[in-house]
Design goal:
This is Amidohydrolase. By secondary structure, the protein is an alpha/beta fold. Helices cover 33% and strands 30% of the residues. The chain folds into 2 domains: 246 residues, Zn peptidases (Aminopeptidase, 3-Layer(aba) Sandwich), CATH 3.40.630; 111 residues, 2-Layer Sandwich (Alpha-Beta Plaits), CATH 3.30.70. The model has no long low-confidence stretch (mean pLDDT 96).
């Protein structure tokens, strides 16, 4: 079967069988089946989804990573797993690169990392712990880009992701009768203060950042009870790791002041930190050369800066000598990443696969 068509078939399977972080069981079994059919050696794990495959021989090791998990979100009124971040496409493109390269005479090892739980922000750490980048000199990733960042047919040699982190908070006040608000401590008032506070944090506009409420749970079915308790969450982003430190410090200080002002318990924890990108100039230039070779100078995009985060960058945080870059693929992607109706031109899959193959081959 033509490789382009096989890539599309792989994508279709993954798209129709999404699985959330740490539960990518069918996805892993499908990847095993593919490796066996291609006669490619691989290692899987007893206590973790995902796998690591290798082709080639030699002392040098170059790697590429594909994330394999889906989001959990509401789609047409039903909560379900959904590949709205494009990890189904990432897997298909990396598998395509493997197929383009597996029968070539290679003088180095090429390692294909199929990593779970990117959406949790820490799946990469599990692969690092299992030796995924041991001996690796260069690491590449790939991701589709929204249409407003990159049109179909163009490919960027590097994505400069921002830093991201979640905050999970709990308010402990006192319930009160709706007719006697003075007898309670209204969690809604505290939430309003939290919302207003995070929207009033300002830093230099020359570096992007944001902090916003993304989840609130409070109250019950009785409408005459003023709720004293609530839980909430924040999504916090910044373009650099240094600015993220400043954001966290400002929020910690502000929440302490809000708790004192309203006389309530206000507890919070920071979870699922994802670092900003540390892009290697050498890796970026290797990708740029590959893009030119495959689709021409006119379709070679510029490096992209985006406030989206990706745990791909933990690989370089944990192994600073690793030369890494994530390639961005234009696909006329509409609605936006993480939108339940995200859609794109699937002809981009073969373009991404061929660029990846060229990049890996020429390191």
């Amino acid at each position: 079967m033509e490789i382009k068509q096989q890539i599309l078939e792989y994508f279709t399977y993954f798209h129709n069988n999404p699985e959330v972080s740490w539960k990518e069981f069918k996805t892993t079994e499908k990847l095993k089946e593919i490796m066996q059919s291609l006669d490619v050696r691989y290692n899987s794990f007893d206590n973790l989804t995902g796998l690591i495959a290798e082709i080639g021989q030699g002392d040098d090791i170059v790697a590429v990573r594909a994330d394999i998990d889906a989001l959990w979100q509401e789609v047409d009124g039903k909560e379900q797993a959904n590949h709205s971040c494009g990890h189904d496409a990432n897997m298909a493109m990396v598998l395509g690169a493997l197929m383009y390269l597996k029968d070539e005479t290679l003088t180095k090892h090429l390692r294909f990392i199929f990593q779970p739980a990117e959406e949790q922000g820490n799946g990469s750490l599990s692969m690092i712990e299992r030796g995924a980048v041991e001996g690796v000199s260069h690491l590449f990733g790939v991701h589709l880009r929204p249409a407003e960042e990159l049109p179909f047919g163009k490919v960027s040699p590097a994505l400069h992701h921002g830093s991201g982190i979640f905050l999970r908070g709990k308010i402990t006040g006192e319930d009160a009768h709706g007719a006697r608000p003075h007898q309670g401590k209204n969690a809604m008032d505290v939430l309003a203060a939290v919302h207003q506070f995070v929207k009033s944090i300002y830093f230099s506009p020359f570096e992007s950042y944001s902090a916003k409420l993304t989840n609130v749970r409070m109250g019950g079915e009785s409408l005459n009870i003023i709720p004293g308790g609530a839980t909430f969450a924040l999504d916090v982003r910044s373009q650099s790791n240094e600015l993220m430190d400043e954001l966290r410090k400002r929020i910690d200080e502000g929440f302490g002041a809000i708790a004192t002002l309203y006389g309530v318990g206000l507890d919070w924890e920071w979870t699922d930190f994802t670092p900003a990108a540390e892009v290697s100039d050498e890796a970026m230039e290797l990708a740029r050369t590959a893009i030119r070779n495959v689709i021409g100078e006119e379709n070679t995009g510029q490096p992209l800066h985006t406030t989206g985060a990706d745990d791909f960058h933990f690989y370089t945080i944990r192994k600073p000598e690793l030369k890494a870059a994530m390639i961005g693929v234009g696909a006329d992607l509409t609605h936006g990443l993480h939108h339940p109706d995200m859609a794109f031109n699937t002809d981009a899959l073969d373009i991404g696969a061929r660029v990846l193959a060229e990049t890996l081959k020429n390191v």
